[in-house]
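[Discussion] Sanity-checking designs against the backbone

I'm trying to build intuition for which residues belong where. Below is a structure token string of 274 positions. I'd appreciate it if someone posts a full sequence so I can compare it with mine line by line.
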């Protein structure tokens, strides 16, 4: 048994002790390995270890499934329990729904979320900090691939042209798998571990470029509550290029060659339209 398997089994036992003898706990999967499903007869809970500190605010605003309780263990871990959603993840073709645009707008307009982020000392993600971080990652990678340097040069040259008009709480991972809809047609956006304060164009660009045909952007943004301006287009394009470069460098560190090729192809297309 490797270390990961041992620690997971230990956590499962601790959670079962916490909940009581009728409950059975199993890992829920996911990249972090911190999520669990608890069952007792017909009852079901979603448990998370050391989840986002602003989960209570997200729950109160109806952005995530209802938070039922929070408990701190003797080892310092914080366990949260949320109501189980009887529903499904959204598919790629669902992302043009008007309620997706409306929920993302609600998140970006939430002063409560923004205040919470400020109180926990979150440092805003600005074009300058993004550019500097990617420059450092490229240097550390040791690669001489000219396309990646071209991307960094584009970001550096244009970073002062994409000044955010306002900073909001961005989810930063709006993949369709993170959108859940229940049997009452209530929509949620889950998995907030990577959220930060940034330009709303960060989330908007990733979503529109990935899921919405260009000719439908204006209609989608109408439901979000913004016009499609040249300034917004430029900012979205900048952030999508930065995300593609970040993804290339990430998969290079992991040695995941198929993903590297896929993201490089996307980066080529994006820079061709710069």
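Best answer:
Here's mine. Compare freely.
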């Amino acid at each position: 048994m490797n270390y990961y398997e041992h620690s997971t089994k230990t956590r499962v036992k601790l959670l079962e002790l916490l909940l009581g003898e009728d409950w059975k706990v199993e890992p829920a999967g996911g990249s972090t390995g911190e999520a669990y499903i608890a069952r007792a007869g017909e009852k079901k809970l979603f448990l998370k270890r050391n989840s986002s500190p602003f989960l209570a605010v997200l729950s109160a605003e109806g952005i995530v499934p209802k938070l039922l309780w929070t408990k701190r263990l003797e080892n310092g871990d914080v366990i949260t329990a949320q109501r189980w959603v009887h529903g499904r993840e959204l598919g790629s073709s669902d992302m043009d729904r008007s309620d997706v645009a409306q929920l993302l707008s609600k998140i970006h307009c939430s002063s409560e979320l923004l205040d919470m982020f400020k109180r926990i000392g979150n440092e805003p993600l600005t074009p300058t900090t993004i550019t500097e971080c990617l420059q450092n990652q490229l240097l550390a990678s040791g690669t001489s691939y000219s396309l990646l340097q071209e991307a960094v040069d584009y970001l550096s040259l244009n970073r002062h042209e994409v000044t955010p008009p306002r900073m909001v709480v961005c989810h930063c991972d709006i993949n369709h798998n993170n959108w859940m809809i229940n049997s009452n047609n209530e929509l949620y956006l889950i998995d907030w571990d990577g959220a930060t304060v940034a330009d709303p164009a960060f989330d908007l660009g990733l979503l529109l470029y990935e899921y919405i045909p260009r000719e439908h952007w204006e209609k989608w943004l109408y439901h979000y509550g913004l016009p499609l301006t040249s300034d917004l287009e430029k900012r979205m394009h900048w952030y999508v290029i930065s995300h593609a470069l970040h993804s290339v460098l990430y998969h290079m560190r992991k040695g995941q060659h198929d993903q590297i090729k896929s993201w490089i192809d996307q980066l080529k297309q994006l820079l061709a339209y710069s």
